[in-house]
Amino acid sequence: MILSFGQTDASGQSQMSAERQKLSDIKISIISNRLNLSPEQSIRFWPVYNEYSAKRRGIHKEIRQIINYKKSPEVSDVKSSEDIIRVHQLKQNELDLDKKYQQRFLDIISANQLGELYMAETEYSKMLLERLKK
Fold this sequence. Notes:
Helix content is 89%, strand content 0%.
């Protein structure tokens, strides 16, 4: 019985991993189509973009953890105030990250392509929201 449960769990994790990979592939496709990168740009762009995305995901994960923790009824006003300050710090960190990587991206792609990148990310986010609604 325990073995059966473990197999289901591993299967579920495998399905989640496959779904994440599928979403990642969709995001890469959307960005690639929008930016129309040259082969040289592509070689330089993707490692920088992947690094940037990983750092952004880390910030978003920390914000989600704080917000999810706040749902607990035992959270004091002092802790809530500290959490609000921390979320603002994290949002500032994200803004600082965006500014830092903006220049790194502009060393690789044009300003027009950078604008397309931002639009591609928005398009991807909208697609995810639509997918979640279904």
